[in-house]
Specification:
328 residues, 9 helices, alpha+beta, disordered N terminus
């Protein structure tokens, strides 16, 4: 998947423009309610009408003030996620720890690759396809045309048939074959792997391979020289108006041939996958620093054997501002 340079200035301008528009409209509506309240109180002598309109005026004006300050508020929220002293950080880390315990508990108890990629995936897609169609028909019965539900049902239905007929499974097997591994040996390697499942996505790490099913990617451990945790910031909009900012976490994997691949995964899985890869490999460098980045760009084939300064290495997830379009 291509990773393109993020134009932070353009994103920030779009966000500010959207929040200011929301703020202006909200304040204007609040002002109208305030005028209405004055009319009820002064002209109609209605105290109840004045209080009612005044309350709504305060709500909309308050919302307007919030919208004007929303970019700053969201920026502070994002900063709190990386501050070990913040409540948000501690709460998130506790949630991550509990999720990691569940992942690790099930890592070595898993069916075959074919069972997971074909039958398990088909069962999940099939269930959601039927559910979407049932809800769509129910909506139609009450006079509401739910096009989105119908389209989602069709997409899940297509995914169901792709899974049941082994489309995704054959893709992963082909990935193994590119490393000279037969179908039978691929199943044996997967059987010996630690496997982590998130819905229909599957991540596995063995002594020889790292597999990410939905990418899809089958990477030889011996080809990996560098690995670190990372994230993208994704601004969410509703009807053109800025809503909030999410983080999309992943693991960046540097290969000996100079390719840097980003594998998106749940935040709680990042450190687990990195630990498994580093444990399985030989002289794989963990963590990010500008020095490591420069070294990888200049001489990836010598990355393993080159002495490195570990003083400035960051082991926590790094954001998109640290690297540009060299990640594929």
């Amino acid at each position: 998947m291509a990773y393109k340079y993020t134009d932070f200035e353009k994103i920030e301008k779009k966000k500010i423009r959207a929040t200011r528009t929301s703020g202006v409209f909200s304040v204007l509506i609040g002002a109208l309610f305030l005028v209405g309240g004055i009319f009820f109180g002064a002209a109609l002598k209605s105290l109840g009408g004045f209080i009612f309109m005044f309350i709504f005026a305060l709500i909309f004006i308050g919302a307007g003030v919030y919208f004007f300050n929303q970019p700053k508020i969201e920026k502070n929220k994002q900063a709190a996620l990386d501050n070990p002293n913040s409540r948000a950080y501690r709460k998130r880390q506790e949630k991550i720890r509990k999720s990691q315990e569940r992942y690790l508990k099930m890592a070595e108890k898993h069916p075959s690759l074919k069972t997971l990629m074909c039958f398990r995936a088909a069962a999940i897609f099939g269930f959601f396809s039927v559910l979407c169609f049932v809800l769509a028909f129910f909506s139609l019965a009450v006079g509401v045309i739910a096009i989105t539900l119908a389209i989602t049902g069709i997409i899940c239905g297509i995914a169901f048939f792709r899974s049941i007929f082994g489309k995704s499974y054959r893709t992963i097997i082909k990935g193994y074959s590119e490393h000279g591994i037969s179908k039978e040996d691929a199943e044996l390697d997967f059987k010996a792997s630690k496997v982590y499942m998130k819905s229909t996505d599957i991540f596995s790490v063995s002594s020889r391979f790292f597999v990410a099913a939905e990418v899809p990617a089958v990477l030889a451990i011996e080809d990996i020289v560098w690995v670190f945790s990372t994230f993208d910031t994704v601004d969410q909009y509703s009807n053109g108006m800025y809503s909030h900012t999410d983080r999309k976490y992943g693991v960046a994997i540097g290969l000996e041939n100079g390719l840097l691949i980003k594998i998106y995964c749940p935040e709680e899985l990042c450190s687990i996958l990195i630990n498994d890869i580093v444990t399985a490999g030989n002289m794989i460098t963990e963590g990010y620093s500008k020095e490591l980045h420069s070294l990888f760009l200049s001489a990836p084939e010598n990355f393993k054997s080159t002495a490195k300064n570990s003083a400035n290495i960051i082991y926590t997830p790094v954001g998109p501002e640290y690297f540009k379009d060299n990640i594929q």
